[in-house]
Write the C-alpha coordinates for this entry.
Amino acid sequence: MTGEPPEQDRSKVRSEAQRRRRLAEIFGDVIPDQTSDDLDEGAASDRRTEEKVQEEWLKRQVPPHHG
Protein backbone atom coordinates (compact mmCIF):
# COMPACT_ATOMS: atom_id res chain seq x y z
CA MET A 1 0.00 0.00 0.00
CA THR A 2 2.55 2.53 1.11
CA GLY A 3 5.49 0.71 -0.43
CA GLU A 4 6.70 -0.47 2.98
CA PRO A 5 7.11 -4.14 3.88
CA PRO A 6 3.87 -5.76 5.15
CA GLU A 7 5.26 -6.14 8.68
CA GLN A 8 5.67 -2.38 8.99
CA ASP A 9 2.16 -1.77 7.64
CA ARG A 10 0.71 -4.17 10.22
CA SER A 11 2.84 -2.59 12.93
CA LYS A 12 1.55 0.88 12.04
CA VAL A 13 -2.06 -0.34 12.06
CA ARG A 14 -1.53 -2.02 15.44
CA SER A 15 0.14 1.03 16.98
CA GLU A 16 -2.62 3.30 15.61
CA ALA A 17 -5.26 1.00 17.10
CA GLN A 18 -3.46 1.05 20.45
CA ARG A 19 -3.20 4.84 20.35
CA ARG A 20 -6.93 5.17 19.65
CA ARG A 21 -7.76 2.71 22.42
CA ARG A 22 -5.64 4.70 24.91
CA LEU A 23 -7.27 7.96 23.86
CA ALA A 24 -10.73 6.39 24.21
CA GLU A 25 -9.84 5.17 27.70
CA ILE A 26 -8.72 8.65 28.71
CA PHE A 27 -11.22 10.90 26.95
CA GLY A 28 -14.11 8.59 26.12
CA ASP A 29 -15.97 8.76 22.84
CA VAL A 30 -15.31 12.33 21.75
CA ILE A 31 -16.81 12.11 18.28
CA PRO A 32 -20.60 11.72 18.30
CA ASP A 33 -22.15 8.93 16.25
CA GLN A 34 -24.57 11.37 14.67
CA THR A 35 -24.08 15.04 13.91
CA SER A 36 -26.66 17.73 13.25
CA ASP A 37 -26.17 17.60 9.48
CA ASP A 38 -27.02 13.86 9.53
CA LEU A 39 -30.49 14.59 10.88
CA ASP A 40 -33.63 14.79 8.79
CA GLU A 41 -35.67 17.94 8.18
CA GLY A 42 -37.93 17.21 11.16
CA ALA A 43 -34.97 17.73 13.44
CA ALA A 44 -34.30 21.12 11.85
CA SER A 45 -37.82 22.24 12.71
CA ASP A 46 -37.29 20.92 16.26
CA ARG A 47 -34.15 23.04 16.44
CA ARG A 48 -36.09 26.11 15.28
CA THR A 49 -38.75 25.40 17.90
CA GLU A 50 -36.09 25.16 20.58
CA GLU A 51 -34.57 28.46 19.41
CA LYS A 52 -38.00 30.08 19.64
CA VAL A 53 -38.48 28.78 23.18
CA GLN A 54 -35.06 30.12 24.15
CA GLU A 55 -35.84 33.50 22.59
CA GLU A 56 -39.17 33.72 24.41
CA TRP A 57 -37.46 32.86 27.70
CA LEU A 58 -34.87 35.57 27.09
CA LYS A 59 -37.59 38.15 26.38
CA ARG A 60 -39.34 37.21 29.65
CA GLN A 61 -36.09 37.88 31.53
CA VAL A 62 -35.93 41.53 30.48
CA PRO A 63 -36.58 43.80 33.48
CA PRO A 64 -39.73 45.96 33.24
CA HIS A 65 -37.78 49.22 33.10
CA HIS A 66 -36.07 47.99 29.88
CA GLY A 67 -39.33 47.07 28.18
In short: The mean pLDDT is 78.
